[in-house]
Each structure stands twice: as structure tokens, then as C-alpha cells.
Amino acid sequence: MKYYIIAGEASGDLHGSNLIKQIRSKDHESVIRAWGGDEMQQAGADIVKHYRDLAFMGFLEVAMNLTTILKNIKFCKEDILGFEPDVLVLIDYPGFNMRIAEWAKNKGIKVVYYISPQVWAWKKGRVHKLKRDVDRMMVILPFEPEFYRGYQMEVDYVGHPLLDAIEQLSEERKALPQEVDNGKKIIALLPGSRKQEITSMLSEMLKMVNEFPDYQFVVAGAPSQTKAFYKEIMGSSNIPVLFDKTYALLSHAHAALVTSGTATLETALFEVPEVVCYKGNPISFAIAKQLVDIKFISLVNLIVDKELVKELIQGDLNKKQLKRELEKCLDVNHREALIGEYRKMKEKLGSGGASAKAAEIVVQEARG
Questions:
Q1: Cα–Cα distances in Å, from 287 out to 176, 208, 283, 290?
Q2: How much is the pTM?
Q3: Rounded to 5 degrees, what are φ and ψ at 86?
Q4: Is the domain of 128 the same as that of 202?
């Protein structure tokens, strides 16, 4: 069967790669064409567009790049028609994928959505579009099925694919290069994957380096960026930047400063105390604040429905508060209590096997 998959971000690339592996194990004749990244390519997909060329964050940034986005949508539609897939699989990335879903439905193409857009957070009215345009919706957060049932939409809860990704991590992939193995405890810096957020977050995170001289700071480099890009931000700093080693870094980290997103949950699943950071374009943030209807910005806090990890947002993300919260993460009693809560959160996510369950549904839909 023929599968067309669209992922527009680093996290989607990771989950897409594990989905592709499972599809190929269940359908040995599968032909997979995709928008994604290096992980999906290594898993066996023919990559049409890399997510590094797609990631625009914030209302203002999207508006400034609207021409490029519209060209991508036009190209995507033409490419799907040329490929003639048996099923179209959309992975999160709602601003783009929901447009494609509506178009594909009108063209009679079967649409499966893997990893629900966060419609429970903002623009809840989008549920009606999803209900109209999507044949099967697969969700990964434990509170999502109940949310959708409130709109008379049945979805498939497959569990969170991060559980599988972490469980399958080999000892070899946990190893760190010698340059960071200097005997000091490690504080990991995860500033995100997009240029805009890395530029903003990393400059704030680096202010902690001189405040904690007894620790080794290490940056998790986004695979879509270059060493030269990080060098521009970091200047003469000799802090290591590790590419394609985020899980290895979290396996060894004593604490972490993490940009809001999937990485907050990954850090918690590795049982690393963290401070969640977010600072965006002031105009985009002001608009988002009026539209978003959630108590927290980190997945960790959303899943447990309380502030388990500290969130420093916009003006609160400053040197004084960041230092105070990082000190808490290094405190023995705080660490023990937090790790205990992390384990309870993990139980809420289920027993794993998300990628296999999702692939089963995708293959089933492709075969009709």
C-alpha cells in the first residue's frame, strides 16, 4: 500500500519514524512518501520536504512567511495527487495539516490524524473541522478521549509514543562523548528546535553558567540547525553542543532547563528535574494569551493537572528567577519528591506500544 505522511516539526519526525518502522513491519509492500526529517528518512520514507524549511512559530512570524507557507500547501497538494496514496497520515502540525485534511477529504483521499492538534488548548471550534475531515483520529494524551467525547467524536487512544522511544534506547545511544565526561554533574540545556526559539531561549539559559561553576552545562543541538548557528549565539563560550544526542544527554543529566514543548515530557520521563522556559515575540504572545485556554504550557503539568514543574514564561524568565528555580532542582529533597511525582505521571500514560497500535490503524485504513 502507499502511505503519504506529513510531519512539520522535530517531535513529529521522531514519532513519524517510529510509526514508519511499525508500518513497514506490518506491510512489507509499503511505499512511504513524507514531509519530515532525518529520522523518518532513516526509517525508510522518501522525504519530499524537510521540516527545517517548514517551522514558523508565532502569529507574527506566520504572517511574515505567509507566501512561503501558501506555496508549500500548493506544492503538497500537487505532490499528494501525483503519488496517489491509499491513506494520508497527518502528524500534529495543525496550521498546515488541517488545511490539507479538508482538501484531501474533498478529493476522496482517506485521512488519518496521528497525534491530535491541541484543540483542547485553543480554538476548540476546530474540533468540528476535524470531525468532518478526518476518518480516524489517534490521540496520545490520557485526557483527550474525554475531551473529544464532549463533541460526540470518538477517537483512538494509543498511548504516548515517547514511552516506546525511550524504552528502546540502546546503551550505545546513551553514551556521551568524552568532551562532556569530565566528572562534573551535568545540567542540560534544551532550547528548542526552531531558530527563533533557540535564539531567544539559549541566551537566557546561558546566564546560569557562571552561577553554577561546579556543574557542566551541555546544550542539546537541534538536528535541523548547524554548529555555526549555535556559535553565533554562544560566542566564545566553550560549552559543548551535542547533536542527535538529546536522549543520551538526558540519561546523564542531573537537572535541565527546557523550552516548552515535547521536550518537557521527555525530560520528565528520564526523571530529570527541570525548569520549563518560554519567551516569545511579545506581539505573538499577547495574541496567544487571548486565545489559549489552558492552565499550563508544559505537557508534564497538563497531564497531572497541577504545577509539578516550574514554568517561567515571558517576563518571569529572568536571571534571578531562573537561578532560584534551578537551585531547587539541585536540592536533594525537592529532587526526590519530584521524581516520585514523575513516576505517577508515567503510570497515567499507559504501558507503551503506541507506535505499533497507531500503525495497525493506519495499515487497516490503507487496506480499506
A1: 41, 30, 6, 5
A2: 0.83
A3: -80, -25
A4: no
